[in-house]
Amino acid sequence: MIDVSAHLGHYAFRRLRHNTAAGLVRLMDRFGISRAVVASAASITYRNPQSGNEEVASEVEAQRSRLIPFAVLSPVYAGWEDDLKICSEQFGMRGVRLYPGWHNFKLSDPRCRDLVNAAAARGMVVSIPVRVEDRRQQGWLVDIPDVDPDEIAGLIRACPKARFIVQNAGGLSGSALGRKDGGLPENYAVDLGRLSVEFGNEIGRLLTVLGEDRLLFGTGIPFHYPGPALVKLEMLRAPDAVKEKIRSKNAERWLGLAGG
Fold first, then answer.
1. pLDDT tens track for 131-170
2. What is the pLDDT of residues 66-119, one digit of tens each?
3. Rounded distance, CA 100 to CA 66, Å?
C-alpha cells in the first residue's frame, strides 16, 4: 500500500506520535503500508515553510525506499521560486503541498497559479489538504476553515497541465470535484481519508464519477491512525482489482514511481 497523505515533524498545537522517519516507518509496518508521501507538519505553522522542508529532507535520507518527500511552500512567501528549485533539485521532492488557509493566501491568487505551474513544469504533483484538523479541535489561537472544494476546482481548471491530489476531503459529491457535470479536466485524484464508505458511500459514488484510476489510499498519519482508512477499503463494495488500484497502483502512476 502507498499512503499519499502522511506527515513528519512537530506540529505547533498538539503532540504528534510516530512523527520521525523511523517512528513513522514502524507504524507503517504495523499496518502493512509499504511507502508513504510525507511533508512537514511543522511547515504548516512555520513563518518560513522552507525550514520544515529542510528538516524533512534530512529526516528521510535514511528511509528513501519507504518515504517520498513533498515540499510545503507558500506562494506569498518571498523566494519560493528558489525554495522550489532546492526542493526539487537538491532534496529530490516529488511534489508540493499547499495550505492556503494556514499561509494566508487564496488558491485563486495569480501567485498561487504561478507556483503550481512552476511545480508542474518540474514534474511535481500538487497536493491540497482540505483540512489539517477538525475545526472544533483547533487551538484557541487559530480558526482555520476547511479549503472550499470549489476553490480547489477553480485552480484545477486554471492549471490543466498540473497534477493534483485532493487530500482529507469529505462531501465532495456536492461540488464540481465530485460531479459528472463539473467540467474539470481529469488532472486530479482524491484520497479516501475522510470519504465515507457506509453512510452515503461517497467512495462508491466517486468511483462512478471519477473512475477507478483517480482514487488513492491516504490515512493522514500521524495526525490520524491508519485503521479507519484500512477499514474503509475493506468495506468498499468493489472488485479486488479496483481495490488494488486504490491501495497502490494509482499512486504509483500518479507519482511517477517505478512500476506505475
1. 998 888 878 888 899 999 999 999 999 999 999 999 999 8
2. 999 999 999 999 999 999 999 999 999 999 999 999 999 999 999 999 999 999
3. 28
Residues 6+ apart with CB under 8 A from 239: none
Cell numbers standing for residue 141: 489561537
Domain coverage including residue 208: 2-255
* Domain membership flag for residue 165: yes
Give the span between the Cα atoms of 29 and 34, in whole angstroms.
Answer: 7
The domain that holds 228 is classified in CATH as: 3.20.20.140
Residue pair 168/218 in contact (Cβ under 8 Å)? The answer is yes
- Count of domains observed in the chain: 1
Nearest to 148 by CA among 112, 173, 172: 172
- Determine the length of the chain: 260
In a domain, 260, yes or no: no
Q: Is the dihedral of CA 131, 134, 135, 139 positive or negative?
A: negative
Q: Give the Å distances, CA to CA, from 70 to 104, 182, 205.
A: 20, 28, 29
198 in Cβ contact with 220 (< 8 Å) = no
Domain assignment of residue 234, yes or no: yes
